[in-house]
Amino acid sequence: MYREKIDVVFDDGDSILQRMLEQQRHDASRAETLPPEAYNSDSFFRLEEDKVFRQDWLFVGHESQIANLNDFFTLDVVGEPLLILRNDAGIAVFSNVCLHRWAPIAHGSGNSRSFICPFHNWTYNTHGKLSGAPSMNQAQDFDRQQCSLPKIRHEVVFGMIFVTFNADAQPLAPRLAPLTERFQRYHVADLVTAYTLDYDCPYNWKMAIETFMECYHHAAVHRTTLEDSFPGRLSSIIDEGPGWTICHQPLRKNGELSEILTAGLEPFSGLSDEQMRFSELLLLFPNCLISLNPDRLSISAILPVSPHATRWHRVVLVSQASAAREDFPQTAATMKQGSLAIIDEDQWINAEQQRGSRSRLARPGRLSHLETTVWHLANYLKIRMAE
Ligand code: FES
Ligand SMILES: [Fe+2]
């Protein structure tokens, strides 16, 4: 049945939110997607920024990306350029915006004892203090000693660095405490960065998360890659907590261990035979995606840019034993090629999904039991955005 969408004002965030809050969130067997406008509306996107991304804890990276003194990396999080570094007091997160005329000070990643703004050479130390400001001696009442980059609240949980812009946010560690056994099993705090991947996604941030979190699409999108070893129909949604949801992704029956393990990596120590035969996909609401595998992890920060643009910051982690192997550079290069092939498949379908979601004839779609994680994300948003 076709019905023109004449009853909907397309870019009214409040009306989209209202319809979303009217959707039931108690019976998974009746689950449906959010309204497609929630993936396209500018005003709804601003509501998400204000009610979710500026309130909750956001993953930005793993400690091992800045393992050494003065290591740093940069990231834009809901329009805030951030500088994440290790100084002699530990990890710190600063606004990466110059106090003079707002140019971002640091770029990319690296190791540096100071940061010189590329616009007029104002210089900052690794504690965010302004240490140099040329030709400012005639500026009355300007005391550079008093000038510091704003500090952003952060918390490190099992080596994962999270930030929040909300001074009143409850500490994150207690919320994630029920996942302790799992994070310990995969040694998350002790892993090292094999490589990072940063790329632009031409689709809504929720599409990035939803697709990562369900294996229902394997049989179509990844039929010549993932589906053989990890048939989507065998996956299941195993756990949901106040801050996360998990999809269990088993290796096919009678599958060889070589299908789940990466040649050249050492499997994590202490895994049972059964634990060697599955991967798990975790979403820590709202923006942290984790893939747990018997010999490697990926942890991603999904960073909304606009309703139809998202930045993906992905960190791939392995054990110190794996990273110490002589053939590791080759192994990491092969792993990277493998991930890029899968990423390409998802990039294509998600861009297509975005295109379809703009249709005035698009409606909320029903969900399979294999995509209950999609519904879990929607329910998290309903709760956060109703506040
Ligand atoms: S904007 Fe940074 S020195 Fe001028
Ligand atoms: Fe995929």
UniProtKB/TrEMBL annotation:
GO terms for molecular function: 2 iron, 2 sulfur cluster binding; dioxygenase activity; iron ion binding. Coiled coil: none annotated. Its EC number is 1.14.13.-. CDD domains: Rieske_RO_Alpha_N (cd03469). Its cofactor is Fe cation. The keyword Magnesium does not apply. It comes from Pantoea phytobeneficialis. This is (2Fe-2S)-binding protein. Signal peptide: none annotated.
